[in-house]
Automatic annotation (TrEMBL):
The lineage of its organism: Bacteria, Pseudomonadati, Planctomycetota, Planctomycetia, Planctomycetales. It comes from Calycomorphotria hydatis. Keywords: Membrane, Transmembrane, Transmembrane helix. This is FecR protein. Residues 160-241 form the FecR protein domain. Gene3D superfamilies: 2.60.120.1440. The keyword Transmembrane helix applies. Signal peptide: none annotated.
Amino acid sequence: MNTPAGNHINHDFQSLLDAYVEGRLNEDEAALLSEQLKSGVKYRQRLVEAMDVHASLVELSRDAVISDVEQRLFGKAAESSHKRSELSIGKLWKTRLTLLAALAACALLLAGVAGVYNYQYQTLATLQSVIPNSQIVVDGSHVPSPGYTLHRNQLLSIERGAAQVKMRDGAVVTLKSPSQIRISSAGAVRLLSGELRAEVPPRAIGFEVRTLHTEVVDWGTEFIINASDPAETMIGVSKGRCGAREVINGNAVGNYIELTAGMALKFHHPPESTKRDKTGIDWINFVNVSEEPRVVTPQDWEQAGIHSFSGDVEFTTALPGGGDLLKTPMSSTAYLLEEQLPQKIDERIAVMTTEGVLELPVGHRVRSLLLHVNQPPRSVIRMAGEIEVEGRIIGVIADADSLEKTDETFGSPDILYPSGSSRGLDLEWNPDAILISPDRHSLKFHLRHFDGWWDEVRILVEVTDLNN
């Protein structure tokens, strides 16, 4: 059947309406109809009209049948007229009752749609800040700027750079590329890959993060979760405490293991087995409790002249371990930090560039960044990453002698630097590599770390902004 309500409604929607009022709508069609009803008021008005017309036609059809039967039974016109008069009054009430029932049903339907819409599309989190030149994607579409609101089950991907997300319950989540999270609720996310750092205020206690194999519940803390490797998950606590337990086949199992400030766990999940007795748990070094390190924000990276970084590298504003590079916690990533604010060079310094070894002229204004690796003992680990900066990269200092000679010039007074020959990069015999892009705004590193050696490189960046 077709309803007479205008031609502005498309044929597909009309077909769905016909199927609905006639009771022959399948599940797929019901889903399509629900989406159409969400998209505009005119569709919901059309549904009310269709139900009204359908109810009227049903009543008219019933009256015609009753009149025919009445004529056969009574045969007398007067009596038939009297009966029809009574039936007309009855029909009027029936039509009104049917219409009221239809309107009530429609109201319930719209209330249900509104409830589903509110549940699905309510704002659960907001993209709070993004470092310049980042690529942030939500459900396949690029997000242009901070302030973007996130809803239930939306997939947030950091393809380049880094960003902060503020949950409606108050937790602040920092993500760097490459990473993916899915918004579960106002106080919970799923970390699908990459690294997540959470700062949870008291009012947001209970914030939950799930990975494929673990569940972490905050009890008032700052913590970090790394799920870059599908076979393992690392959880570390900067301050406060949280609980961690395994997730097997989508279900959290066992009691929570409590972690307090300075503690970290690594869950191992062999891909060939999901049995709990096959899962290993290692306690690992993480941070110095007394330092109470804070969560690093995208604003910190921007102030250091860093646009983005990815791969096996982590930016920090203060080294754990009391600032002693030899006492930094063992890590599977390299530390990246700003050593000195931009300054003028008052002596000639040799640096490695794409054109070979060159000397920096006196008076050159530069910013110094340090990349430092302290890997676990008895390990040979390969690492790679990329760093993009605001200014042009002049060159790097990567051998032990040059690093020690320039520690006083570029080094931070808050850092205790190692001395001796067991630092720097071995670019001649070891397969370490530093690659500077043609435009000199990014640097890629490929390192192979050996036990007893501190891979370290000083990156010098030109500063042209007189305000810096």
